[in-house]
């Protein structure tokens, strides 16, 4: 396959030339309410952390007052590249995108990076957020110490095991599905439990049946879910694209969930990194950047 064809397949998008698109979210069926960018994602029931390694803030700049707003998070995987949720890219349309790294605060300190290019997963499904992953290319470079170890294809993410989720999103469960949802000034983290995909699909289908007359919703191989039986801990609005880590290995990217964060019958949904590992590895080969894998 020639280089030109490769570029078409992976749909690399350069800022200022072509607006990045991953599909509109109004048709997403995995959530109760996902009508506006305010409904994207979250940390509820967690605690503050000063660990800013691996995670960076994905920002958009207002063209009038030149201030910044947090829209998502992103995870550093090489000196110039980071992973995020593909649906986050759509929010960047008509704005200047920036990444802030090296700080526990999304609005200050650390380093601001320009987003030079976006590589989206061509198999992204706008209806179910399947393969909800993209790669950002930034300048100036990140620091080597910030690069996360990425789960390989053989990594076993066991049902019942715990993952650590981090972000700057909404912390109040009662405010998470309202227009008053907002950001956390500092970084928060929470531990949640991996739930079997079949069980999770049934939980979500049952919960959604109160609102929709639909057949069973099945999570895809590129997805997994996590939460607690009693609820109360979750990612939340503005946390999309952030890391889910286990044993210091990146195993997931925050993707979607219920409009009320921490819902006991609607766990959060994540990109399953071992499943999309081949895509990440292929992109690193095509665009010549190094990623550290655990196997």
UniProtKB/TrEMBL annotation:
GO biological process, one term: digestion
EC number: 3.4.21.4
Peptidase S1 domain ranges (all copies): 43-285
Catalytic activity: Preferential cleavage: Arg-|-Xaa, Lys-|-Xaa
Keywords, in A-Z order: Digestion, Disulfide bond, Hydrolase, Protease, Serine protease, Zymogen
Enzyme category, top tier: hydrolase
GO molecular function: serine-type endopeptidase activity
Protein name: trypsin
Organism from which the protein derives: Ignelater luminosus (Cucubano)
């Amino acid at each position: 396959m020639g280089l030109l064809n490769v570029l078409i397949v992976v749909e690399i998008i350069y800022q200022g030339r072509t607006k990045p698109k991953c599909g509109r979210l109004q048709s997403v069926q995995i959530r109760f309410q996902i009508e506006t960018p305010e409904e994207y994602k979250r940390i509820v029931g967690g605690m503050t952390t000063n660990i800013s390694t691996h995670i960076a803030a994905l920002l958009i700049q207002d063209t009038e007052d030149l201030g910044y707003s947090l829209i998502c998070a992103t995870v550093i995987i090489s000196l110039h590249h980071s992973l995020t949720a593909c649906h986050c890219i759509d929010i960047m349309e008509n704005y200047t995108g920036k990444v802030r790294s090296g700080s526990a605060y999304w609005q200050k300190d650390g380093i601001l990076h320009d987003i030079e290019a976006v590589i989206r997963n061509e198999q992204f499904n706008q209806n179910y957020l399947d393969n909800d992953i993209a790669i950002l290319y930034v300048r100036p470079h990140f620091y080597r110490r910030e690069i996360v170890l990425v789960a390989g294809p053989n990594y076993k993410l066991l049902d019942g095991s715990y993952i650590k989720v981090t972000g700057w999103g909404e912390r109040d469960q009662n405010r998470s599905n309202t227009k008053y949802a907002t950001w956390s000034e500092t970084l928060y983290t929470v531990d949640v439990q991996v739930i079997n995909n079949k069980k999770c699909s049934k939980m979500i289908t049952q919960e959604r049946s109160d609102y929709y007359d639909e057949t069973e919703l099945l999570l895809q191989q590129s997805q997994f879910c996590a939460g607690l039986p009693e609820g109360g801990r979750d990612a939340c609005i503005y946390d999309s694209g952030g890391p889910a880590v286990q044993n210091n290995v990146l195993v997931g990217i925050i993707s979607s969930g219920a409009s009320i964060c921490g819902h006991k019958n609607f766990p959060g949904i994540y990109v399953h990194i071992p499943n999309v590992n081949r895509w990440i590895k292929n992109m690193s080969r095509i665009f010549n950047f190094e990623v550290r894998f655990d196997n």
